[in-house]
Amino acid sequence: MSNHLKGLLIAFFGVLVLTPEGILVKLADSDSFTILFWRGIFFALSILIILFIGYGSRAVNEIKSIGKEGNFNWLFDWPWRRHIYSCYSLHDTS
Prior knowledge:
Elements (H helix, E strand, L loop, with lengths): L2 H16 L2 H7 L4 H24 L3 H7 L1 H25 L3
């Protein structure tokens, strides 16, 4: 399989997964912090599953090789900012 086809498949399945997200957030009828909590848990589990599928037994070593700064950024900065902004925008609009 060519890299171009792999990229198209990844983009297609990403859109397929994210499309119903807005509808599910609106239908949840929950406060924003509850949605943020569960969305963050499922996001972290998804990333870990993808890492273990891709790297197998080397996944833990790959995570350690990023270093303290990289792991701090991954755990506390990047994903949570996106989750907070998107959940509040979906939850607070009609």
